[in-house]
């Protein structure tokens, strides 16, 4: 990936995302499409970037699974009480996976 286009790259350009929930915590699995995409995401898609993108103040936890390959994020408090406690349309957080796909990546090196 050349330097000129890197600042225009979103997660969607490099990966697919699956979303799930545990209580009011959103779980996001980011599945890179190839080894180059994994390397870029491993570097640029930090827990801090995800926390900022979802506007959460509690720490986001990232688990790296390079042999799958995947990056799994635990994003607390996003679902406002979870499936049974959230009055919004998406208590499971499925559309929030799409929200992560729109995150623009910033160069970290």
TrEMBL record:
Protein's name according to its UniProt entry: AtuA-like ferredoxin-fold domain-containing protein
InterPro entries the record matches: AtuA-like_ferredoxin_dom
Domain of life, per lineage: Bacteria
Domain AtuA-like ferredoxin-fold residue range list: 10-104
Organism for this UniProt entry: Nocardioides albus
